[in-house]
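Worked problem 6 (solution included).
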Amino acid sequence: MGGLNLEVFKFGMYVMFPIGIMYYFGTNLDSRFSVPDFWPRAENANKIPLERDEIDAELQRLRARRLYLRDKRLAEQGGQQQPSEGRE
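Solution. The predicted structure is:
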């Protein structure tokens, strides 16, 4: 293939390849290639608190969670250190 024939072939490929892909896969690509329940629902997603009361409630919740995890971690460390204190 040389010259004009090659150019006609390349032009045909450039035009027909996307058309062929669209014909093969169809028009409802959202239903064919989508993952069901991929995006979280609004009730499961994080909601940024905007009101002052909501912000205070969120800070109290985070503070309580942090203190609970700290107490839990200290209790576990305390349980692990007791046998070593008896050996010394």
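Discussion: The chain has three helices and no strands.
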